[in-house]
Write a structure and sequence with these properties.
Blueprint lengths: L3 H24 L1 E2 L6 E2 L1 H29 L13 H4 L3 H15 L15 H27 L3 H8 L4 H20 L6
Antiparallel strand pairs: 1-2
Length: 186
């Protein structure tokens, strides 16, 4: 059993690594169709699954804070406070909510340790996580684009459905693998 201080450092390292991987994921883009998709949301899903419903969103907030403070961590190497007010601001809020929802998916043991994640449970929480990600994103797009909800959803939601389903399955598989190898933070 790890001592409390080692476990605490382990959680801090996981938080920092997942925040950094989220930034890297924003730069890994695949131009499939008219809207490219990135690996950013894959790492946000892992933030929630691996770190839980509190620490997962903290990792995402760390990523957002880095971008707001000027580090080029957002898509296409951009940064700045304006992203919170622009067309992607709703998605940034949605990232935090998505990590929180994903954090609820793994069952926790009586000791609070990360537990098993059955596929069906992971998919159910994954779909709910997508709803909480895309809802504020599409609502913000509606306001910024001065358009209706259907048009905003056609631009900011529909093209991402297939790739998010694939990333969801990969995130669940990664969590299950890390848990089986006992590599998750305590």
């Amino acid at each position: 059993m790890q001592s409390a201080s080692v476990a605490s450092v382990n959680r801090l390292v996981w938080t920092a690594v997942l925040a950094a991987l989220t930034a890297v994921g924003a730069h890994i883009q695949f131009p499939i169709g008219p809207v490219p998709f990135s690996l950013q949301t894959f790492f946000i899903m892992l933030c929630g699954l691996i770190l839980g419903p509190v620490r997962g969103p903290v990792a995402v907030l760390l990523y957002i804070a880095a971008g707001v403070l000027g580090l080029p961590v957002f898509s296409k190497g951009s940064s700045g406070f304006a992203h919170l007010l622009g067309p992607t601001g709703g998605f940034l809020l949605g990232f935090v909510l998505q990590a929180a929802v994903y954090g609820l998916a793994p069952r926790r043991g009586a000791d609070g340790q990360p537990g098993e994640l059955p596929w069906l449970r992971g998919i159910a929480f994954g779909l709910l996580g997508s709803v909480v990600l895309f809802t504020p994103g599409v609502v913000r797009l509606t306001a910024v684009m001065n358009t209706d909800l259907a048009r905003a959803a056609a631009v900011g939601f529909v093209p991402f459905i297939p790739s998010d389903l694939v990333k969801m399955a990969l995130a669940i598989a990664c969590y299950r693998h890390l848990r089986a190898k006992r590599l998750l933070p305590a």
